[in-house]
Structure prediction request, 315 residues.
Amino acid sequence: MSFKKPKIALVGAGQIGGTMALLAAQKQLGDVLLVDVVEGVPQGKSLDILHGGPIIPTSSQMSGSNDYAALKDSNVIIVTAGLPRKPGMSRDDLLDVNFGIIKTVGEHIKKSAPNAFVIVVTNPLDAMVYAMHRVTGFPTNRVVGMAGVLDSGRFAALVAEELNVSAEDVTALVMGGHGDTMVPLIRYCSVGGIPVTQLLSKEKLDAISKRTANAGGEVVALLKTGSAFYSPALSAIHMAEAYLKDKRSVITAAAMLNGEYGYKGMYAGVPVILGGNGLEKVIEVELDADEKKSFETSMEAVKSLVEWVDKKMAG
Ligand code: APR
Prediction:
């Protein structure tokens, strides 16, 4: 019997891609490949991390390439290829240009790594993960989007900050599309098992919900030249780890709905079980009338994106 380390390919070697490469090496998730269209960048970043290998320490092998053929036989592919948001730009403004990029990348993934588990990070997320599914034709348990881990993490982090407690003790659930209409489910947030509603006032929690929905924009406004990358990288690697270690983690991810929550054929941020088969199950939580209404509003926004992608695919 022989074993081989998993191959983790990161398409897009920018801010998120580079950070993920370091995290994957630190966690020894497998061998790491960076792919980007800019000459020298994936090679340079992988060489830089390789030099730090003995210091981390890690046994992960690092490589970089400008050739999609290098994706061959990847086990996990995380896609951040695309343009990030600039100040004043919505995620949807990115739609057209990033769709073209996802189409190219998806066609190469289909050819070179037909068995890969694919995590899409490129924005606008709900549209790009749907496009990736359409382009590759991969089953929906192998094409998921990274958004819910991040949105839920942001909510939990703000709750922890407000309460002055450890962030690791807070769990939160933010559902819906990855945009301004996302739905933080306040009553599902808990702190060391205690419902957050017993610890913070409604006003405080409403303010945290609002800040969570705008959290990406807040970072963009501060950075001015790009969008958030540390927390998105941590979130995507968290998902890859759940798959590679068959953890059966209960997390929020952009998953294709097949009747759950009353929707079919659309991706949405929902709680799922992530394990060795990829997306093992969508979990349906109970929503009250207000939560349902917010979820439906969020899904309206996703629906228009999906229709846009369908039109592009047909044309
Ligand atoms: N193939 C491979 N890489 C590509 C392609 C392509 N066709 N087109 C662009 N890229 C690369 C760019 O050269 C760049 O290095 O994708 C990388 C994107 O990196 P950044 O610009 O640093 O963006 P980043 O902050 O990493 O965000 C990437 O994730 O959260 C989303 O909105 C964000 O859509 C954006 C994506």
Residues 148-314 form a domain with the L-2-Hydroxyisocaproate Dehydrogenase; Chain A, domain 2 fold (CATH 3.90.110.10).
